[in-house]
Each structure stands twice: as structure tokens, then as C-alpha cells.
Amino acid sequence: QVHLAESGGGLVQPGGSLRLSCTASGNIYTLTRMGWYRQTPGKQRELVASISTRGGHKTYADSVKGRAIISKEYDDNTLYLQISSLRPEDTAVYYCHAVLLSTAEDLWGSGTQVTVSS
């Protein structure tokens, strides 16, 4: 079983940047796709960015295009999300997501809060 654990959230001023990390407890090659979602109270969870673990194809939500970079490191089984020029509307709980290759099961981390405020 693969477990996902996020870190790197916190309070950031508008215009600032941060990097979120998601460490997978198992082999990252058992996952077919990994990504970051975010959710605010009363709203549906939305995709921020995703990356294929094979080939590295990346997708980004329009709201973060040009401001976000998703990347992965196989050596330490970690997924990253770098976001710059942060805006108050980026405030949300950010969740790491992955799809298990063998069963197509969705895996989720417990989330990390990002607050953009002066």
C-alpha cells in the first residue's frame, strides 16, 4: 500500500512563493499519475496540476498556468509543487493525489493548508 504525506504549507504574503512536497511511502513507479488538488470550504476539490510518472507529461489548471511548476524526484519518491506570485485566491487546503497503477485506485494525502494573506 502506498501512502502520501504532504508538507510545505503555511502562511504566505501575496506575491510570495512556496513549494509543497508530497512523499510517497512506496515506490513511485507503482503510481501511474500524481498531482495536486486544492479545496476551499463549500467548494469542490479542483485539480491544480498533475504529472505522468512515465513520460512526465504535465497539466496545469488555467488559474495557475505560468505560476506553478510540478515536478517529481524518483530518488526520494517525492512530488513537488512550486507556486509563485501567490494570490489570496490560492488559499486552500492542498492535497496530493496519485493513481495506483495496478488497480486504478485513487490515493490521497491528508492535505496541507496554504493561506495567502498580508
Structure characteristics:
118 residues; mainly beta; 7-stranded mixed sheet; 4-stranded antiparallel sheet; 11 strands
Show the helix and strand layout.
Elements: E1 4-7, E2 10-12, E3 18-24, E4 31-39, E5 46-52, E6 58-60, E7 68-73, E8 78-83, E9 92-100, E10 106-108, E11 112-116
Parallel strand pairs: 2-11
Antiparallel strand pairs: 1-3, 3-8, 4-5, 4-9, 5-6, 7-8, 9-10, 9-11
How would you explain this protein's 3D organization?
Helices cover 0% and strands 53% of the residues. The protein has 118 residues and is mainly beta. Strands 2, 4, 5, 6, 9, 10 and 11 form a 7-stranded mixed sheet that branches. A 4-stranded antiparallel sheet has the order 1-3-8-7, with no helix packed on it. It starts with a strand and ends with a strand.
Concise account of the structure shown:
It contains no helices and eleven strands. The chain is mostly beta strands and 118 residues long.
Strand fraction equals over 45%
Specify the structural class.
mainly beta
Shape: globular
> Helical element count?
0
